């Protein structure tokens, strides 16, 4: 079962074990500069609000309602990262869950068209808790291009760059838990994704709808699945469509003010606030997806209509860093 | 069942194995109490702290605040308000669900509907 809990998405598998599941926070963050450099992890700036799409009158946009799921607001060119947290009782081993992430029904890990199955070669999913977060598209081993919101129909989104069409947009999530017997016997969950592969109806997209496009480049590894492939339980998979609305559309649909526009990366850095580096022990990164390696960041896309939406941040900043790690720290004598 | 103090002490010490941020002194500072007081709470020499302090403690230790409040014999004030606003409805609902298994209770929660995409 999937539900909204205080602005995060909670996916639970009560039929497997009580108190087992996954929380996904949709985090606001700084848009990193697209200056040819590879940047560190930006901070989280709070969560995007989430609402049931069924709660609102969408007028003629019935296709949004047909997809079900949730709706969240993003400003044009605003960046997003996904924060994954396992749910388990204190003291229990975290229950492994395979998570597939798509934007416009293009897999953000493999670059392949969306399918309901899991694939190991190339890997098209991440494994939680090993993968703590995902900030963007897997363009190269150890590098991602940041998820950045862009209007549909102008050629910016990965969907449009790879398929030439603006049919879907939004964000798609599918979670598949490890089979219970593997978890019980190995204390390490792994599982396959659910089979859901459908064709989106052909439709004229409202220009206010949003998709995700690639932004600046960041150091981030997508970790290899450490479990045997057969441990994933595709029959238990659950999925959710996340419609992304721009600020104006969000107000029209929900009647709520969207969050305030985030500060720029340079203003954040000038304030002396930290960026982050992360390393994990004993985990292997997968290769970047070949087709995603060819995608252009928003800044370098010549839009099919209108001017390019990318606004250059002020260049040349010297950020300070904090390290994030799961490595055990030696407390020493003091 | 372990008591509130023992539970948070175990949790804090587990986290402290990997980071000094979870020392008694650091956590005391985060939640705004004296280390001696938190030590007494952990040893169950004194009663659990206020709701506000327990919420901060849950946040600091990565625990669910409702679980910690329940272990401390308290109910979150926002939940109390929900019940007080519609006491008959929620009293009846809670009594009817009290012996149901977790999966059945979870079905009462509103699920995100999946559609065609």
- Oligomerization status of the protein chains: heterodimer
Q: Supply the number of helical segments of chain A.
A: 6
Biggest interface, which chains? A-B, 34 and 21 residues
**Number of β-strand runs of chain B:** 0
Gap between N and C termini of chain B: 46 Å
Largest β-sheet summary of chain A: 17 strands, mixed
Shape of chain B: globular
CATH topology of the domain at 4-71 in chain B: 434 Repressor (Amino-terminal Domain)
- Distance from first to last alpha carbon of chain A: 48 Å
Gyration radius of chain A, in Å: 19 Å
Beta content of chain B comes to under 5%
Secondary-structure content class of chain B: mainly alpha
Number of helices of chain B: 8
Quantity of strands of chain A, as a count:
19
Give the SSE string of chain B.
HHHHHHHH
Number of domains of chain A: 1
Q: In words, what does this structure look like?
A:
The complex is a heterodimer of chains A (334) and B (117). With 334 residues, chain A is mainly beta. Chain A has one domain (2-325). Helix content of chain A is 11%, strand content 31%. Chain A has helices at 62-67, 158-163, 180-186, 247-254, 265-270, 290-293; strands at 2-5, 8-12, 21-29, 38-39, 44-47, 51-52, 70-73, 79-87, 97-103, 106-107, 126-128, 133-134, 136-140, 143-151, 171-177, 209-219, 238-245, 274-279, 320-325. In chain A, the strands form two sheets. Chain A has a 17-stranded mixed sheet that branches. Chain A has a two-stranded parallel ribbon with strand order 18-19. The N and C termini of chain A lie far apart (48 Å). Chain B is an all-alpha fold and 117 residues long. Chain B has a domain at 4-71: 434 Repressor (Amino-terminal Domain). Helix content of chain B is 62%, strand content 0%. Chain B is globular, with a radius of gyration of 18 Å. The model of chain B has no long low-confidence stretch (mean pLDDT 90). The A-B interface holds A 1-4, 9, 12, 14-15, 18-19, 52, 54, 65-70, 90, 105, 168, 172, 198, 200-201, 238-241, 326-329, 331 and B 7, 11, 16-20, 63, 102-103, 106-107, 109-117.
């Amino acid at each position: 079962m999937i539900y909204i809990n205080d602005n995060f998405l909670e996916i639970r598998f009560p039929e497997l074990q009580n108190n087992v599941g996954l929380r996904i926070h949709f985090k606001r963050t700084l848009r990193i500069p697209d200056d040819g450099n590879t940047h560190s992890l930006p901070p989280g700036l709070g969560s995007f609000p989430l609402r049931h799409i069924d709660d609102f009158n969408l007028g003629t946009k019935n296709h949004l309602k047909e997809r079900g799921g949730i709706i969240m607001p993003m400003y044009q060119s605003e960046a997003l990262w996904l924060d994954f947290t396992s749910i388990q009782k204190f003291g229990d081993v975290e229950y492994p869950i395979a998570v597939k992430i798509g934007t416009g029904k293009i897999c953000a890990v493999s670059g392949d068209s969306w399918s309901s199955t899991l694939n190991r070669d190339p890997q098209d999913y991440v494994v939680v808790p090993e993968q703590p977060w995902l900030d963007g598209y897997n363009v190269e081993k150890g590098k991602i291009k940041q998820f950045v919101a862009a209007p549909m129909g102008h050629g910016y989104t990965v969907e449009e760059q790879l398929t030439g069409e603006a049919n879907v947009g939004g964000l798609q999530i599918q979670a598949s838990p490890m089979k219970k017997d593997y978890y019980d016997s190995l204390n390490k969950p792994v599982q396959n994704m659910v089979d859901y592969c459908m064709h989106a109806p052909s439709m004229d997209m409202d220009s206010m709808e949003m998709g995700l496009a690639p932004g600046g480049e960041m150091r981030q590894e997508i970790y290899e699945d450490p479990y045997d492939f057969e441990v994933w339980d595709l029959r238990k998979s659950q999925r959710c469509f996340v419609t992304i609305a721009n600020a104006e559309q969000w107000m029209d649909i929900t009647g709520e003010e969207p969050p305030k526009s985030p500060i720029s990366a340079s203003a954040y850095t000038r304030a002396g606030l930290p960026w982050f580096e992360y390393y994990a022990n004993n985990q292997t990164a997968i290769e970047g997806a070949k087709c995603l390696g060819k995608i252009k960041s928003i800044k370098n896309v010549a839009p099919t209509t209108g001017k390019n939406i990318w606004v250059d941040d002020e260049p040349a900043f010297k950020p300070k860093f904090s390290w994030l790690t799961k490595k055990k720290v030696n407390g020493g004598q003091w | 069942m372990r008591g509130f103090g023992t539970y948070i002490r175990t949790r804090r010490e587990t986290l402290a194995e990997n980071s000094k941020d979870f020392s008694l002194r650091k956590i005391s500072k985060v939640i705004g109490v004296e280390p001696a007081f938190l030590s007494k709470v952990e040893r169950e020499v004194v009663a659990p702290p206020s709701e506000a302090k327990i919420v901060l403690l849950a946040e600091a230790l990565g625990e669910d605040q409702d679980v910690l409040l329940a272990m401390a014999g308290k109910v979150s004030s926002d939940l109390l308000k929900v019940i007080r606003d519609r006491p008959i409805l929620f009293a009846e609902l809670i009594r009817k669900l009290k012996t149901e298994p977790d999966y059945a209770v979870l079905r009462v929660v509103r699920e995100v509907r999946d559609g065609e995409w």
